[in-house]
């Protein structure tokens, strides 16, 4: 494998960095809101599942 000089490496990094597509402010805000909503929904779901399993376990233990 050929060695790359520091100058060539920097040129390659700049060329690759110029290909980056940065999201717009609107895309960033929309994505952040979506992530927040999904986090709240999943937290609520897992809270319900945990409460249900807790109730089942406590019911089973009370039978003993």
Automatic annotation (TrEMBL):
Residue ranges of the TM segments: 32-57
Q: Does the keyword S-adenosyl-L-methionine apply?
A: no
Task: Give the subcellular location.
Answer: Cell membrane; Membrane
Which superkingdom, per the lineage? Answer: Bacteria
NCBIfam families for the chain: secE_bact
What is the name of this protein?
Answer: Protein translocase subunit SecE
Q: Which Gene3D superfamilies match?
A: Preprotein translocase secy subunit (1.20.5.1030)
Q: How does it sit in the membrane?
A: Single-pass membrane protein
Q: Which PROSITE patterns match?
A: SECE_SEC61G (PS01067)
> What broad taxonomic lineage does this protein's source fall under?
Bacteria, Pseudomonadati, Pseudomonadota, Alphaproteobacteria, Sphingomonadales
Q: Name one GO biological process term.
A: protein targeting
- What's the stated role of this polypeptide? Essential subunit of the Sec protein translocation channel SecYEG. Clamps together the 2 halves of SecY. May contact the channel plug during translocation.
Which terms does the record give in the GO molecular function aspect? protein transmembrane transporter activity
List the InterPro entries: SecE_bac (IPR005807), SecE_sf (IPR038379), Translocase_SecE/Sec61-g (IPR001901)
């Amino acid at each position: 494998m050929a060695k790359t000089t520091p100058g060539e490496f920097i040129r390659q990094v700049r060329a690759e960095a110029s290909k980056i597509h940065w999201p717009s402010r609107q895309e960033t805000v929309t994505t952040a809101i979506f992530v927040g909503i999904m986090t709240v929904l999943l937290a609520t779901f897992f809270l319900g599942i945990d409460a249900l399993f807790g109730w089942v376990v406590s019911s089973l233990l009370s039978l003993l």
